[in-house]
Each structure stands twice: as C-alpha cells, then as structure tokens.
Design brief:
This protein has two helices and three strands, in the order H-E-E-H-E. It has helices at residues 4-19, 41-52; strands at residues 26-30, 33-38, 59-62. Strands 2-1-3 form a three-stranded antiparallel beta sheet, with helices on both faces. A hairpin with a 2-residue loop joins strand 1 (26-30) and strand 2 (33-38). The radius of gyration is 16 Å and the shape is globular. The model has no long low-confidence stretch (mean pLDDT 90).
Amino acid sequence: MALEKELETYARELQTLLANEGEGKFVLIQDDKIIDMFGTYEDAVKEGYKRFGVETRFLIKQVQAVEQVHSVTRNITFPCHT
C-alpha cells in the first residue's frame, strides 16, 4: 500500500508530536523519518518537493489527538449540468 511506512511512522510518533506542541501543525514524513513540522500545509508541501522532488513519495499529515472521520454514503445524487 502506498505510504504505508509513513502512516506507521505517524502512528508510532503521534504521542511525541503531540507532546512537542505539534497539534494542528503539519508533519512531513518520508519513509520512517519525521522530517519536520510546519505551520501550514503549503509550507510542508514546498519543503517536501524541495527535499525529495516529485518522484519520491512523502506524507504530509496534520497532527491531531483525535482523528477526524469523514463519512460518505453511496446514495448520493449529483445534479447534472448540461
């Protein structure tokens, strides 16, 4: 699965990130390493591309003590625009 190692790293390091006043910040993770934390998603993306380019995978995730869950139902209809 894509980004599996990065997601495992996030889960493993979550309590440390939270203890370091990281809640709400965006963490940049590549493989099993926390690269840095950023105040905005955009800053994290810029640094990720600067360090790793577009060919290497990396994860940017907002640090949250409680993960937000978004539900979607399959019974959604969308208006047709013709």
